[in-house]
């Protein structure tokens, strides 16, 4: 399985357009030891021909252009992008679907709850249903393994399974609609497996880590894990108000309850932080936080990084 991280930042990217936090300011001033990043986006392929997007980020257009393997290969209209798997309905995670609206056949996997939010409540997504067989929505059930197929139904060789991680829908979803949806379909982690049994876990938003999740991670070869915030009160400290990491559905990297400590015992997977917020001090390669993460055996994803498993 080929895995490519097209974007490694949390929502807003790095730098974020309206942010003057120490990281964003230093990056703009050219004094930052670290890299700019686009909003989280991962692509996987079983054969190097058909690619599946895990989420569809608002930066998708530029991310596709920066990735030769995702460029059209033959004819006038074509794309190696066969489909997408949606893990939640956050704008950071689904806006890119609207960038794929040029009548290119595509298969989109989502829970019924996420599909209803997008297609029944947000009329703009009707642009994906203008002609028959434009976007085929495939319903995914939590915990049940499904095949990733191209828009014409060809098996890609990849298998996927979704874990229920969070129960909060985005703020734009009306209370009326929320009351009709299944809470366990709100925010998912994805496990993608190749025919040879190699496994990738993509977990950009993890509210808590329990024993069952640890067992899942120990069965994987690569773990792309929620690196949104370094500390629980990071945004509150920098902005003077706002929500904690926990309230936003993200376990922080540091502290006794954080992911560095909780995932310390994992032996099998290569551990890589992804979905990193622009305020996170570990983005700064000259910082003690960066050193601490690297010394604990973790990597920090950069845009364009890829691996073959
Ligand atoms: Zn910032």
Structural description of this entry:
- This protein has 309 residues and is of the alpha/beta class.
- It has nine helices and 14 strands.
- The strands form two sheets. It has a seven-stranded mixed β-sheet. The chain has a seven-stranded mixed β-sheet with strand order 7-8-9-10-11-12-13, with no helix packed on it.
- The protein is globular, with a radius of gyration of 19 Å.
- The protein starts with a strand and ends with a strand.
- The relative contact order is 0.16.
- The mean pLDDT is 97.
- The site of zinc ion (ZN) has 8 residues, from α1.
Structural topology:
Layout: E1 2-7, H1 22-29, E2 41-45, E3 51-54, H2 60-65, E4 81-85, H3 91-94, E5 106-110, H4 112-121, E6 135-139, E7 146-149, E8 155-166, H5 175-180, E9 187-193, E10 199-203, H6 211-218, E11 222-226, H7 234-239, H8 259-262, E12 270-274, H9 288-295, E13 299-300, E14 306-308
Parallel strand pairs: 3-4, 4-5, 5-6, 10-11, 11-12, 12-13
Antiparallel strand pairs: 1-2, 1-14, 2-3, 7-8, 8-9, 9-10
Zinc ion (ZN) binds next to helix 1.
Shape: globular
Radius of gyration: 19 Å
Mean pLDDT: 97
How many strands appear in the DSSP assignment?
A: 14
How much of the sequence is in beta strands? 15-25%
Distance between the first and last residues' Cα? 5 Å
Q: Fraction of residues in helices? A: 10-25%
Bound molecules: zinc ion
- Spatial order of the strands forming the largest sheet: 6-5-4-3-2-1-14
Alpha plus pi helix count: 9
Short overview:
This protein has 309 residues and is α/β, with parallel strands linked by helices. The chain has 9 helices and 14 strands.
